[in-house]
Design goal:
SAM-dependent_MTases_sf; Lys/N-term_MeTrsfase_sf; S-adenosyl-L-methionine-dependent methyltransferase; methyltransferase activity
Length: about 200
């Protein structure tokens, strides 16, 4: 199994990969986000996008007039590619791109000094889970501390049990189950899961 939790894996992969969408296309994810985007305080609402890789999700969010977006990835090649994609699409860069470990958000001043109205990840927690539940919990704790009052975390995962973790500082709800494509009609039903995580009250 690939070492999805290791930066070396992503560096090798991103040396040649220019575009890839984990689990679902951004165009499928955006309608799931729509009701939450509509509840944000305005187009200047702060959004934290964790593990963007070679996705175009941040571009689709900016197309919806959101630009106060902090895009975080483990690998510098991803942040470089994200800036290039935004510049090619819009002519200039307005979003922020940070190379950082999503399990150590508190150690990044540009992140820890901010509060976010919405946090998004698409299979980033899945990759981090390769290092164990403690790593996912560390990511969740950092997100919890980074959320503004009323802020939420939306996460897409292949696992029905991704957030079944003791001490998780969130109440967890499945927004929807997304069926995966079948090669044959007789294949079993397999789903991806879109989670809504609302922070439990801070101690």
């Amino acid at each position: 199994m690939p070492d999805f939790d290791k930066q070396s894996y992503w560096h090798t992969r991103f040396e040649s990969e220019t575009a890839f969408e984990w689990l679902i296309p951004s165009s499928t994810f955006m309608p799931l986000l729509e009701s939450f985007l509509n509840k944000l305080p305005g187009s200047d609402a702060s959004i934290l996008h964790l593990g963007f890789g070679t996705s175009d999700l941040q571009v689709q969010l900016r197309t919806r007039s959101f630009a106060n977006i902090t895009n975080v990835d483990y690998e510098p090649l991803a942040t470089e590619r994200g800036r290039r994609l935004e510049r090619a699409t819009f002519g200039h860069v307005r979003m922020q791109y940070i190379t950082a470990d999503a399990t150590h958000l508190d150690s990044v001043p540009d992140i820890s000094s901010q509060k976010y109205h919405l946090v998004i990840d698409k299979s980033t927690a899945d990759a981090i889970s390769c290092a164990g539940d403690d790593a996912v919990l560390a990511m969740a704790q950092g997100i919890h501390r980074s959320l503004a009052d009323g802020g939420v975390w939306i996460s897409v995962s292949y696992s029905a049990f991704r957030y079944d973790i003791p001490q998780l500082p969130f109440d967890v709800e499945v927004i929807t189950k997304i069926p995966t494509a079948k090669a044959r009609e007789t294949d079993p039903d397999i789903y991806h899961y879109c989670y809504l995580l609302r922070p439990k009250p801070k101690a």
